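Q: Could you fold this chain for me?
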Amino acid sequence: MNSMEKIKQFINDRNWGQYHNEKDLALSITLEASELLELFQWKTAEEGRKDTERLKEELADVIIYSYQMADKLGFDVDEIIAEKLVKNAEKYPIEKVLAENAKNQE
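A: Sure. Below is the predicted structure, expressed as structure tokens.
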């Protein structure tokens, strides 16, 4: 059983699907992302990484809600990620990015 099937089963077993519309899923993604960000508030990146259990939990919440939203919209997660990576590669070609990085390090 893949991750999306496990998420769907969990939701269906609890009859929560009725509450999971696109708007509420988008809100939930934002709220969970804020909880993830809060783990780093007023800390260095290194300090923020120390609570690995909370980091895993909050990151999982963001991913679960994101998977749910993709499913609700009929999007294949692997497909939309692949499409976005193609667009990002066109927008940020390796040669240009490396040249800018070298320039910024001077």
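A (continued): The chain has a mean pLDDT of 94.
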